[in-house]
## 1
Amino acid sequence: MELRFGSMLREDFEVFWLKINKEIISRVKVIPLEENDALMAGDILADMRKTDQGIGIQDVLIAASAITSKCIMVTTNTRHFSRINNLIVKNWLEKI
């Protein structure tokens, strides 16, 4: 959703979307959103609201899916996602 959204905002959408499909989507496993992910997302969102930490619902769903699937969250927005408990976050631009 986020990749499509960001792509749709670009003037070169068609070309950029083809590049996203070829270079990113074709190389990753897309994890379907399950009931446990939704429950985890509700917990995360409530915890963050209690501590006055704003976060978008889409980011909460992505984080919850990563946590329940025992995956690493790969992003350039490490500062944003590192506020979520039990989420392992790696910056995909940094060398490992």
## 2
Amino acid sequence: MPTYISLMNLTEQGIKDIKNAPERTARSIKQLEEMGGKLIAFYMCMGEYDYITIAEAPSGEVAMIFLMALGAGGNVRTTTLRGFSNEEMAQLIGKLP
């Protein structure tokens, strides 16, 4: 499955309701799994981003729908990157003309 790295920042709403963040996170993980995805890693961070996640989703469309739903909750804003493993990178480079 494709891998996605999300860099997240809490919104004003999200930080005001930070005490409920563990429950919101658990619901989001369950929703991702119901969509066929899998959370690989989750970190709360100090610095520019509040959270960083690494997840897999069956497709870019599924990842996008999940991220739109997450954003619609109003607690986080995301910047998401499509990650390629070392093996995937080698395969891509092998296809260069």
